Amino acid sequence: MTPLPHQPYRALTIAASDSSGAAGVQADLKTFEARGVYGLCALTAITAQDSQTIYALHALDPLLISRQVRAVLADIGADAVKTGLLLYAPVIESIREALNASGYGGPLVVDPVLIAGDGRPLADDAAIAAYRQHLFPLAAVITPNLGEASILLGSPLKTVEDMCAAAKSLKDSTKAAAVLIKGGHLEGEFMADVLYDGVNVQVYPVKRLPLINPRGTGCTYSACLTAELAQGQTLSSALEKTIRYLAVALESAAMWSLGAGRGTIHHSVGRPPLFSNIP
Fold this sequence. Notes:
9 strands
């Protein structure tokens, strides 16, 4: 009997393209590769951007997005799926339909990209309502940052205590299996991420690094979490590895100079055995 070929772990990102390579699909695929997972992608939009700004953004047709998702899931499959920039309600609905039609039943990481790094809104009220109706209830975890969690709740978050209460509230209102609020924008020497899985609230404090090249951190964060879940890690274990990976990737790029604006993190630095402290 001929043995079956080895099948690598697979992760699918459904997100926008970033021409500068710092965020979006490019960051996700680099992170998947660094963490030992075969990456698949479905593009939702194409951007013209550099280290300073987004000059143009073209959203793709929801039917084309759905067909991308269906094509890769039907033939190659995925052990975990994440979403990034989705922009509009019809896109969000098409992704839900594609996942259901494909019979996908693995972990879904929903990173609700509602605002850009410069603060500009990237999702209108209809898109937020579509997230609530179509994707959040399917999610193994949603990963809003402070600003996005504030939008979803309708009130600002300023402290770790605020984040803990918000995680519980979002768990109830979104119907997601778990809520992870990223606290990178907290003020002070320390920042923290907060995870609520419906039973326990876990706080992950991290000493703030001097961020010279922070572009793509949010996308990379959710991509690493997705890669770890694809390999069968528990959510808490996946999160611990993600936090370590981000710290190493940020530190490694501290002296980089890429463009006239904000630089990117070093995605590939987390590839074993280069950093054996990230098993």
